Amino acid sequence: MDEVLPSSVLLISANSQDRKLLRAQLDLMGLWGRVIEAESFIKAQQLTASQQPQLCVWLIPDDEYNHKAFLESKKQLGQHRVILGDEKYAPLFVNERFLSTPHMFRDLQDHIRATILPQHISDALRGRELAPGDQERIYRDLFDRGSDANLLLDAETHIIIDANQRALEMYGVTQDEIIGMNMLELVTDLEHPNMWRDTQFLQKSKGKPVFVERVDKKKDGSHMHVTVSGSLFEFAGRMIFQDIIRDETERRLSEQRRIDLRIERERVKMLRQFISDASHDLMTPLTIIKTELYLADKSSDEEKRNQKMESIGNQVQHLQQKIEDMITIARLDATTSEQLVMKQTDLNELVQTLVENYQPILRKHGHTLTAHLTSMSTYLTIDIEHIEMAISKLLDNAIRYTSGKGHIDISVESDDEF
Prior knowledge:
Blueprint: E1 9-12, H1 16-28, E2 35-38, H2 41-51, E3 55-59, H3 67-73, E4 81-85, E5 97-100, H4 105-115, H5 119-125, H6 132-143, E6 149-154, E7 160-163, H7 165-171, H8 175-178, H9 192-203, E8 210-217, E9 223-235, E10 238-247, H10 249-298, H11 302-334, E11 342-346, H12 347-357, H13 359-365, E12 368-372, E13 379-383, H14 384-401, E14 407-411
Helix pairs in contact: 1-9, 10-11
């Protein structure tokens, strides 16, 4: 069996995330341990001289394109090169193999097949036929496994070599279309690094199945949530991955509907309690105002009348605050997820800023406030305005209901269970 050189592919990209994604794709094509990476042309030239890769793959960055550097380096990069980049750069590479981004996975795979993959991997790419007796046993085993999709993959390249009828129905493809297809074509791009990781687990599992959840895509481009039971075994002289795949989309939707129903029931319960509490909170200051007005009207003492009017003014402010709270709650209750402005922010920093902003109010009331921040990362994707409003309400209530010259603590904590 032919051997692929240890450094078959040199991957050049200044962006570490792009390198990670391409590295996962190349590894899953059958190039495990045969990919080297360079973040610059200088590093690429050094690696080319020492490792002599059979193919160079260069991803042109979106914001920094240096054609001169490429021209100066191309001779040192070897005979076989693939350039991945925006379509606008294509005219500059008329004599090169250029794939516009987002590149078609199969185009890159076909070029690698034509340039560097050995014969035994090329056979897998063509979906090498099995002997008739082997085919009969494989198909009987596939159909005996029930209604889940069942795929057999070449363990080195992830090329699909067999599939049952349920797999064809689930992915919306024909038998001719799926045989010879790389499994990466049926998995969303964001899942490629996860699939690379799961493959490593599977290779170390010593035949034990590995269970994962991921998002696959059908021929029409629609996505589906699936669970996969993967196992590795040897058959007919080759290592085979068997993926038993179950479409969990409907189950997840059903679970989400149950969760939404529980949330709605809890919301109705809280609304009823809120109405009851609000009625009491509104009636109390109204009763005080009514009483004070009566007493002020009956009193001939100017000082007492002024005291009653001051008390009425305080109750009016209290009423105004309650009504503003009710309006805020009503507005938040009517807010949909589409209306939220989600941004990533550091919760520690947000809380610390609010604490500093509240210092004048705290001094006015004679209170002190200490913020206890967590040492763990608190970067969250949230609607900053709404979260600031919620924390501010907590601080307002703490200030209002802390008697004397009291102390208030606010803490940010991290819980691994969530």
